[in-house]
Amino acid sequence: MFDSTARWLSRWPVASALVGVFALGLLLFLPVSETSARGALTGPARVIDGDTIEISGVHVRLEGIDAPETAQTCGNRRGGTWRCGRDAALALEHLVGRREVTCQDRGTDKYGRMLGVCFVGGRDIDAWMVRNGLAWAFVKYSRSYVHEEAEARALHIGIWQGKAEPAWAFRAKRWSSAEEVAPRGCAIKGNVSANGHIYHMPWSPWYAKVRIDERKGERWFCSEAEARAAGWRPAHIH
Length: 238
What we know:
Helices cover about 30% and strands about 25% of the residues. α1 (about 1-10) runs antiparallel to α2 (about 15-25) and α4 (about 125-130) runs parallel beside α5. It has 7 helices and 14 strands. The chain is globular. The protein folds into 2 domains: about 1-165, CATH 2.40.50.90; about 170-235.
């Protein structure tokens, strides 16, 4: 796992720093004990974005972290930008692979998603994302990963290598702009395509391209909970 992950990370803009950190042993996962069946969800996971996965139809928001949105870009050391949101999601997908993931239930967020501290092979996924500079510690709700964030910031890796707008600020701006022009301020687009009924948040990379055609059964939603209740699913990274 160590070798394959290091090789994979070498493809991305944060490569050199991350591989160096691996060599120093600073990115080792924290071992954890086996999780009991009660209060936990286990199974293969599908990655929705850098901090959300789906297991057996249940959407799990990784508790205590906030990853860049898929459409988001961040600054790099050379003064340019890199696709930090996409890369965070792909890194999580690579880490999870086809292995079983176990998520400890930490409650429900305001969108009705399960909040989870998740593990693969006994290793803390939430901590890994923050320690690799692929997510912020979501201190508004939890201080669980402030130490991992401090490590990544000190090493100037991932989102810390250049200017990066926190994901919560990015979402707030996108939502504010979208609701100004959306019907009744309901800014979530429910699209019907060959891939099924999919909803797009204002920060989705495909949001601007989606045109709502009510004749096809497409519609606007005011909340994610409303969209899921109507049978729509969120857009995934692929």
